[in-house]
Amino acid sequence: MIHIQGLHKWFENQHVLKGVDLTIKEGETVVIIGRSGCGKSVLLKHIMAILEPDQGDIKIYGQSMFKMSSTEQDRFRLQLGMLFQGAALFDSLNVRENVGFSLYEHTKLSEEVIVQKVREKLGLVGLEDIEDLMPASLSGGMKKRVGLARAICNEPKIILYDEPTTGLDPINADVINDLILRMQERLKVISIVVTHDMTSAYKVGNRIAMLYDGKIIAVGTPNEIRNSSDRVVQQFITGSAHGPITDQGKNKTESL
Amino acid sequence: MTRWDKLKRTVSVRSWLRKFGAGCLAVFKGAGGIALLFRDTCVSLASKRIRWNAVIDQMNKIGVMSLPLVFLTSIFTGMVLALQSAYQLRLFSAEQFTSDLISVSLCRELGPVLTAMVVAGRVGASIAAELGTMKVTEQIDALESLATNPVQYLVAPRFIAAVCMLFVLTIYADVIGMLGGYLIAVFKLGMSSHVFIKRAIKALLVKDVVTGLIKAFFFGGFISIAGCYFGFEARGGAEGVGRATMLAVVVSLIMVIASDALFTAIFYFF
Prior knowledge:
- The structure holds 2 protein chains of 2 kinds.
- By secondary structure, chain A is α/β, with parallel strands linked by helices.
- Chain A has 11 helices and 10 strands.
- Chain A has a domain at 1-79 and 158-166 and 189-256: P-loop containing nucleotide triphosphate hydrolases (Rossmann fold, 3-Layer(aba) Sandwich).
- In chain A, a hairpin with a 2-residue loop joins strand 4 (55-60) and strand 5 (63-64).
- By secondary structure, chain B is mostly helical.
- Chain B has helices at 3-47, 52-62, 67-89, 98-136, 139-145, 150-187, 193-203, 206-232, 237-269.
- The radius of gyration of chain B is 23 Å and the shape is globular.
- The N and C termini of chain B lie far apart (57 Å).
- The chains are: A alpha/beta, B mainly alpha.
- At the A-B interface, helix 2, strand 6 and helix 4 of A face helix 5 of B.
C-alpha cells in the first residue's frame, strides 16, 4: 500500500505540488492524469525517492523512504520498478546489460542465469533476439518495451509508468496498454501510471486521479471520472480548448 | 540632477547590484556544489565497491586517447621554448643554457599545466556532455531507480582515471616537450646532442619533477569533478548540455590556472 500525505514541492519560486494526498491499495492500478507540466512526473519521482519533498511524506508498506539512509533506500528501491517517459535506456549498454542491470549490480547470479532471466523478461514484453542490440538501433515502441522489461527484471512489488504511451503511434500505444494490463494480471503488483492519454487511462486504470494546480482534485473509477460533474475534470477528459483550465491561464495573462 | 535622473540612477544601481548578487550566488553555489561532489566521491571511494572495469575504460578514454593531442601540444611547445629561449640567451652568449631552461620549465610548469589544459578541453567537455545528456534523458534518474548511486557508478571511475592518467600524461608531456626542444637545439641551433642531454638531466632536481607531478595529480581531480558536476547540473535539452559543457571547460581551466599559481607559491616558499 502507498500512502501519500500532504506532499509539497517547490522548485525555486515555483510551487509545483501543493499538498498531494492519495492512497493506493494493494494490487491496484491508479492512473494519474493532468496537463503537461502539472507535476505528474515530479510526483512519481517522489514515490521513487529520486526527489525529496519540501513538506509531507510518502509511506510505502508503512515505511517512509525519506527517513532511510542511502543504503537502506537503495535496498528498498529494489521493490520498485520504473518505466521512464523516454525509456531512459543506458546508451553505452546493450539491451541485455540494460534489462539485467539490477541483476548484474545487486546480485551474485551467474552470467547464464542473468541471460536466462533477461530473455524471460524480454519475452514477457513480446521481444526476442534483441539482447545484443544497442538502444540507438531500437524503435520508440521497442525502447519502451525494453524499459519495461528492465523495470520488471527485479520482480518489483510496485511498477511506476511515466507517460508510457507518449510519442507512440496508436497501435504501439495499445500494445503498451496491453502490456501494463498483462503485467498487472501476471505479477499482481501495484501500478501507478502517469499519463494524459485518456484512452490509455480508461483502459488500464482501476482508479483515475486528476492532478490539477498541485493537488489531486478528483479520484474515482474510470466511469466515475467520465461522469464527473467537476468542470475542470470534464474539460480535461474531453480535451476542450475552452473551460476553467484554459480560462484560468487566460485570466493570469490578462492580469499581467 | 532632476528627480527623474536620480531615480534612474538608483534603479540602475539596484539592477547592477541585483546582477552582481546573482552572479556571486551562482559562483558560491557552483563552488559549494563542486566541493560537495568531491566529498561524496571520497566517501564513495572509501565505503563502496570501486568498479575497476569502468576505471580501466575511463583510463583509456581519458589517457590513451589524449596521447596524440598531448604529443602535438608538447612537441611544439618544446620547439617554441627552445627557439624563444635561444633568442634571448644569445644576447648573453649563453645558448648552452637552453637545455637547462627547457627541462626545468617543462617539468615544473609547462608539462603539467599544458597537459591539464588539453585534457580539460578534451576530457572535461566530453565528461560534461556525456553526463549532461544522461541527465536530460533521465538516465541518471534511471540509475537511482535501479538502486545504483550515480556518484559511485559514474563519478568515482572518472575521478580515479583522471587523477592517474594526468600523472602519466604529464610525464609523457615532459619527455615529448624535451624531445621537441632537443630537435631544435641540435638540428637548428647546432648544439651537440650529448651536451643537450647531459645539461638537461643535470639541471633537473628531483623536486622539479615531483612538484610538477603533484600539480598534475590535483589537476586531474579538478577536471573530472568539475566535468561531472556540470554534467549533473545540465537542464533542459541540447542547450542545457551545451551550456554545461562550456561551463565545465571554463571552470576547469580557471581551477587549473588558479591552483597552479597557488601550488607554485607553496613550492617556492617551502
